[in-house]
């Protein structure tokens, strides 16, 4: 059966890594008809919108999307397409598993944690204004409803996947009302999951501990901004942004995308590592029930990484994106 899923290739390295991933999924024998949608500047040139209605309709129709990164201009310019997409589809939970990959050397070899980032509010609500010249106000929005919902997601994920502990990350010593409400909510939900240990860390101390003793963390639940920052930090523990996947879940839709951005410094040069988006696609395949193909891709990835002769530059090799994808497709064919 051929499924139709939405593909948002994005920009920068997005089209390069998406092409590689699509070919690998096809080589794994999964038949997907991709409903291709533009976002960001490419979409703006065609439709006058950075997040066109056609794209949102496509995800609503297909329920599942694979997404490459989309550039957001710094300072001035259009607002983030990524934030807009998450808000428009109410993709409230951003799930980012951070785990060592076989054959990828990194500072730590025992990292196995999962970041659950609230995706719809906090300082990402985009409510900023100039109060008077030289003074700008950004509103940090934390609601009980969104905090309870993300805590419930984190604990139910922990229960479903046999995780032992959930740690809430906050700065409630300073932001007593907003982050205070967030941890009130995580505590409320924690009481409903007595078999799962619960603790809390102030975000600055959590950053220090995660670069010293990352094995102490299991599932982390964070408001949006801390989640964004801690995700990149944790990616650095296991080999960098080229290897860490992610997924955005709402009640009705799921959009799978890597943690990394559009990497303008290497875009268009066939240098990007497609592993992060590939693993996001593996999460997607499991989500749609293609578990065998997902396992086969992960086995092929482990084989190529352990073999070590074909690696992209971020992992110390010289292979291009397309050479790495070809090695993976060869490994899939050999395993047949
Ligand atoms: P970035 O993640 O694009 O790049 C940071 C560093 O990591 C760069 O040196 C880059 O070359 C490297 N890197 C990232 N992905 C890689 C990969 N797959 N293989 C090899 N190296 C990789 O972060 P940056 O530079 O802060 O952001 C660039 C743009 O991406 C910005 O416009 C930002 O807003 C956007 N962005 C989009 C995201 C999304 O669409 N979900 C997420 C994060 C950033």
What features would you describe in this structure?
- There is one protein chain.
- This protein has 336 residues and is an alpha/beta fold.
- The protein has two domains: 1-97 and 240-336, Isopropylmalate Dehydrogenase; 107-237, Isopropylmalate Dehydrogenase, CATH 3.40.718.
- Helix content is 41%, strand content 18%.
- The protein is built from eleven helices and twelve strands.
- Helix 6 (178-190) links the parallel strand 8 (165-170) and strand 9 (197-202).
- Helix 7 packs parallel to helix 8 (224-237).
- The protein is globular, with a radius of gyration of 20 Å.
- It starts with a strand and ends with a helix.
- The mean pLDDT is 96.
List the ligand species: 1,4-dihydronicotinamide adenine dinucleotide
- The appropriate CATH architecture of the largest domain is 3-Layer(aba) Sandwich
Helix count from the secondary structure assignment: 11
Element-level helix/strand string: EHEHHEHEEEEHEHEHEHEEHHH
Q: Spell out the CATH superfamily of the largest domain.
A: Isopropylmalate Dehydrogenase
Kindly estimate the percentage of residues that lie in beta strands according to DSSP: 15-25%
* Main sheet attributes: strand count, strand direction, barrel closure: 10 strands, mixed
Query: Could you list the spans in which at least 5 consecutive residues all have pLDDT below 50?
Result: none
- Record field, number of beta strands: 12
Envelope shape: globular
Q: What distance separates the N and C termini?
A: 20 Å
């Amino acid at each position: 059966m051929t499924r139709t899923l939405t593909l948002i290739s994005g920009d920068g390295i997005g089209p390069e890594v998406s092409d590689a991933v699509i070919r690998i999924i096809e080589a794994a024998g999964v038949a997907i008809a991709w409903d291709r949608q533009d976002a960001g500047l490419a979409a703006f040139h065609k439709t006058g919108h950075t997040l066109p209605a056609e794209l949102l309709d496509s995800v609503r129709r297909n329920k599942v999307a694979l997404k490459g990164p989309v550039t957001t201009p710094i300072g001035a310019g259009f607002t983030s397409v990524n934030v807009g997409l998450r808000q428009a589809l109410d993709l409230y939970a951003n799930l980012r598993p951070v785990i060592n990959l076989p054959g990828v050397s990194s500072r730590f070899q025992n990292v196995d944690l999962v970041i659950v980032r609230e995706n719809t509010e906090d300082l990402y609500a985009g409510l900023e204004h100039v109060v008077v010249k030289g003074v700008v106000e950004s509103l940090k929005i934390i609601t009980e409803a969104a905090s309870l919902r993300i805590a419930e997601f984190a604990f139910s994920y922990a229960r479903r996947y046999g995780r032992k502990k959930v740690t809430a990350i906050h700065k409630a010593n300073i932001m007593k009302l907003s982050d205070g409400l967030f941890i009130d909510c995580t505590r409320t939900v924690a009481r409903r999951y007595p078999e799962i240990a619960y603790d809390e860390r102030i975000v600055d101390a959590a950053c220090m501990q995660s670069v010293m003793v990352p094995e102490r963390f299991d599932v982390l639940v964070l408001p949006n901004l801390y989640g964004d920052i801690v995700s990149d930090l944790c990616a650095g523990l296991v080999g960098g942004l080229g290897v860490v996947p992610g997924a955005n879940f709402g009640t009705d839709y799921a959009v799978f995308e890597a943690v990394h951005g559009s990497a303008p410094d290497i875009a268009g040069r066939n240098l990007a590592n497609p592993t992060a988006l590939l693993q996001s696609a593996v999460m997607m395949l499991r989500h749609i029930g293609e578990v065998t193909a997902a396992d086969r891709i992960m086995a092929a990835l482990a084989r190529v990484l352990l073999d070590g002769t074909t690696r992209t530059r971020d992992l110390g090799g010289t292979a291009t994106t397309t050479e790495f994808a070809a090695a993976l497709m060869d490994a899939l064919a050999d395993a047949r």
